[in-house]
Design brief:
Elements lengths: L3 E5 L7 E9 L2 E9 L5 E5 L14 E2 L2 E3 L6 E3 L16 E2 L1 E4 L2 E4 L6
Antiparallel strand pairs: 1-10, 2-3, 3-4, 4-8, 5-6, 6-7, 9-10
Organism: Cellulomonas avistercoris
Keywords: 2Fe-2S, Iron, Iron-sulfur, Metal-binding
Pfam family, one: Rieske
Length: 110
């Protein structure tokens, strides 16, 4: 597969997130599409590596998203946890903005 439509730019505010489900080679993939405080776009797994809850329900600060349940913060560029209790990174996916369309490739994690 290749990049697929995840949402439209108007769907995600600056410093905001949107949960989407995309079709990967092995089945559905839950993705958090994020626009950081600078307006840059990111796509990461929507599932926290520690608590198995939705990261798209967390708060965006700078280039990170915080898990709402236990407070782990993840770098949106690398998926690496920046604070405990999470110790495992989450997958990060390539994002392309084509006009108003936000495209994500869940089969080519970074």
């Amino acid at each position: 597969m290749s990049a697929q439509l995840a949402c439209y730019t108007a769907d995600v505010p600056v410093a905001g997130t949107l949960r989407v489900e995309l079709e990967g080679e092995t089945g559905p993939v839950e993705v958090a599409v994020v626009r950081d405080e600078s307006g840059d776009w990111h796509a990461i797994s929507d599932i926290c590596s520690h608590g198995a809850v939705s990261l798209s329900d967390g708060e965006v600060e700078d280039c990170t998203v915080e898990c709402w349940l236990h407070g782990s913060r993840f770098d949106l560029r690398s998926g690496k946890p920046l604070s405990p209790p999470a110790i495992k990174p989450v997958p990060v996916y390539p994002v392309t903005v084509d006009g108003e369309r936000v495209l994500v490739d869940v089969d080519a994690p970074l």
